[in-house]
Design goal:
Helices cover about 30% and strands about 25% of the residues. The N and C termini lie close together (about 10 Å). Protoporphyrin IX containing FE binds next to strand 7, helix 7, strand 12 and helix 8. Its cofactor is heme b.
């Protein structure tokens, strides 16, 4: 079996992150500019990160379903499709994006510098959809005040949760990622008692201790996002959510980003949150958090990013 090198999807939570989503303009030269960027990306990352390797700079590139078709690679990852809008008790929109850059580092300047280099290479060839600069907030808390990321898988469980294996052998070592930008109504959230907030999340706010199962509300966030396969094994994803905002514009948000070896996992969690399980028993975080974007990307292995740069067919 040929070894594959995955993009650094298994990375830990960092101090800073920049999330960029964009569409590639329709011209053949626009697509070529994107291919060229794919070829240059490893050396750009090396050049910026070498200035201080301790900053831990990484960049993941994800590709949307429409762009994948335009790249004419000859094969399509089994789970790749446009993000599916959800019309439940609350609405999860599907918004346009061909490419995701998920840039992470322990220092904001490293993220900023790499983002600037990438965007200057793509100038004229793309339409920016969104740029969000995330930051670490106290003890990895989101802006609702709860520690976010505690129950992420680690070790072998992490690898199994996020990387495609032999079930889609051509795309082994790849991953899928779903992103959603949420805006919070912090006035409404802060008007609730801490006990009510804890009931909604399913954990204690200050200590981050999880409630025992028999004390959790049926609509608690950690009940609705806890899903199993037919044998009762938990199906996990990796989240690297980041707070962002602009106090003077009264903007407070969470950028949700979830990696998994199959998008169905995150989609099931989203259905439970937005429609409810059973329907109507929805996630009350959504009463104070509005999803304004929704995108799904495939994250190819590094060899596959290189093949895309060269315009080669993907054969496995
Ligand atoms: C406004 C957006 C969101 C906020 C503020 C938020 C916040 C949190 C917090 C505070 C926790 C508990 C600590 C932890 O284990 O990380 C948590 C857990 C979790 N969240 Fe979210 N979350 C959001 C959206 C989502 C979405 C969209 C998904 C998936 C589609 C998701 C999936 C999960 C999962 C799988 C867990 C772990 C549950 C467990 O097994 O205990 N979250 N989230």
């Amino acid at each position: 079996m040929t070894p594959v090198v995955s993009q650094p999807v298994e990375g830990a939570l960092t101090h800073s992150a920049i999330f960029i989503t964009l569409t590639v303009n329709q011209g053949a030269d626009d697509l070529q500019k994107f291919r060229d960027l794919c070829g240059d990306l490893p050396s750009l990352i090396r050049a910026v990160s070498f200035r201080s390797p301790s900053a831990g700079l990484t960049c993941i590139v994800g590709l949307g379903a429409d762009l994948w078709q335009r790249l004419e690679t000859g094969a399509t990852p089994a789970g790749l499709h446009p993000f599916r809008e959800i019309n439940g008790v609350h609405h999860a929109p599907s918004t346009p994006a061909d490419v995701l850059f998920h840039i992470r580092a322990s220092r904001t300047d490293f993220c900023f510098e790499l983002a600037a280099e990438i965007m200057s290479r793509l100038e004229g060839a793309i339409t920016l959809q969104d740029e969000t600069q995330g930051f670490k907030f106290f003890d990895n808390r989101d802006l609702l005040g709860f520690v976010d990321g505690t129950e992420n898988p680690a070790g072998l469980a992490l690898t199994e949760a996020v990387l495609i294996g032999d079930e889609d052998a051509v795309f082994r070592g790849g991953s899928y990622v779903i992103t959603q930008k949420y805006m919070h109504d912090l006035t409404a959230w802060k008007a609730m008692t801490v006990e009510r907030q804890e009931q909604i999340i399913g954990r204690q706010k200050l200590s981050d201790i999880e409630f025992p199962d028999d004390k959790k509300a049926s609509y608690a966030h950690n009940v609705l996002t806890n899903i199993n396969d037919a044998e009762g094994n938990q199906l996990q994803i990796l989240r690297d959510n980041m707070p962002f905002g602009s106090p003077s514009h009264k903007e407070f948000g969470t950028y949700f980003i979830g990696y998994s070896c199959e998008p169905e996992r995150t989609e099931r969690m989203l259905n439970n949150m937005f429609i409810g399980d059973p329907p109507g028993n929805y996630d009350r975080i959504l009463d104070v958090s509005n999803a304004v974007t929704g995108c799904l990307f495939f994250v190819p292995s590094t060899e596959m990013v290189d093949a895309i740069a060269q315009g080669e067919k993907i054969t496995g």
